[in-house]
Protein 1
Amino acid sequence: MHAAATMPQEEALMAAYVGGNERAFKELFQLLGPRVKRFFLRKFGDEAVADDMRQITFLKMHRAREAYRVGEPVRPWLFTIAARVRIDELRKRKHVHSDDLERADLAHANEQINEAHVVERADIASHVREAVDLLPESQRVVVKMHRYQGLTFREIALQMNVTEAAVKLRAFRAYRQLRKHLAYLLEN
């Protein structure tokens, strides 16, 4: 199975777009455009301005697409671009001190980024749990005792009443299987 096929939708679309797939850009715009528009609408309260700022953001994303690291979350990267676009627009409109604007907008962008990272971490944890649950019982027990309970292989062997070599073999096989199932998460 190709790694892009197992990536979350936004990241897979961005990877395809970076690879030259123009249709992927249109799908990304449809998927993320409304969120970006709301980001601007909250600040400016004007549909037309929000639409313009969204267009500028996606244009800047297009120009910077080669800088995107395939497999990384798209939303934090995109909202960082959007925050910069908003700062530029506010500077034009209000002529206020740029440091104050930058701090306020970057704080808001950080909220967006943190939200995306929380979702991403929860998503990764869910994928890991699912992959662990797919392991055979003997391997799953070893992984849970080793990784989640912090036991050594010797301690696990004593609790399971098997040899330490048997525990190590189960662990080796389990971790190899997990690397296969979760390869798309490790490609960064």
Protein 2
Amino acid sequence: MRWKNHQYGSETSFYPLGPFKVRLPFFHYRFELPDYLQGLLMCAVDLAAIPLMVELLGMPFEAAIAIVMINGFLYLLHHILGDPVVPGWITPAVPLLITYVQTFDPGTDRVHALIAFQLTLGLLVMVLGQTKLAAKVVMLIPSAIKSGVILGAGLAAVAVVFKEGGRFEQFPITISVAVGLAFYLIFSPHFAGLKKRNQFWAAFGNLGIFPIIILAVIVAPLVSEASWPDIEWGITSPSFALMFNEYTVFGVGLPEFSMFFTAIPTALAAYIVLFGDVLQTKAILDEADHVRPDEKIDYDPNRSHLIFGGRNVLMSIFGPDVVMCGPLWAAMHVVIVERYKQGRAAMQSIFGGSGSFRWGTNTGLLLLPVVSLVQPILGVALALTLLIQGFVSFRIGVMEAKSQTDLGIAGVIAAILVIKGAAWAFAVGILLVLLIYGKHFFKGDTENTLFKPLPRKGDK
């Protein structure tokens, strides 16, 4: 076992494979039981993608869970190929994709639209990763447009939950209780203080949103918004045949070429949103690398692009996925990193934590008791994910604006993005920035900044 011979300050051993660094469980990293057990339970969040596919594509549960399983298996590629993260959905972009796909007729047209979008996004990401142009492309986009896209994603996420016939109408009390508790546990300074002072609350906070999902399983039946879980024993039985025959290129054929061009604006909007996850990943891992000098963490955004871009390409062919394939599950990545910071005894390698967690979620998806436990409240889990993401998107979107003028433009872009889609939003955004800033199109308003530094003591 190579991980036992790790030299202080060096990377965990690996097999080189082009831009990738292959690491295998037990051999290159220690299998971390706490993270595996947590993943076993947190697969409930992965299952929350099922209601979206059922509603948007009319997909049977058995076919939808087959897609979730394929996506879950591809999550493993990140840590195996050298990306020390807990990957997840492109959550902020999910409402944007829903809005786009709903412009097509239900049935084959919608499936084709989803295939074309995900393949376009995957190829775009892989090209940017291979050419190492990712950061440069995002930097060229004016701040007002970036702010508008991120704000629009947050607005769309909230709108999906509260629209007529949406999840809130189905689970008003359960969602109110679950979201209220989630916002307190995740964003409240008061609870952050409790975690610092008390080990119990620190451990409770490290469970992420799992306690909230268990609470929803209990509350929903008590208030007659869902049935009590009918726990079944055995192994999950997905229908891969049904999925392949009716929801992939093998059954419905390739989309028309024009659909790929139509998907470009929404794919670009999704990329702007997900690039923020890449930056957030790097910041979190840099902090961990400073705390744990015994292991050098090599996070390469370009390598990450190749991996999650490749995942999107594969899913577009073998199981088109409404939630897409993103570079980061922020909530669980933070939980894993916080445990990693406790030292080598707690977690031998960051790859052990992130890898063991995703091995756990894959195991959970196979266990029928886990799947049947959370099936009645999957809509609540989805609403919870979208509302948390909406909160974060609003916060990040506002901070992306550099001036009040930027913020005004961003507000218009966000509204148009939700109502008319990404193509209209980009067109209006480019026109507004051009009309207002003219030759300073890329620089914007650099004098009247939105967030001015606080005056120092003694300043007049």
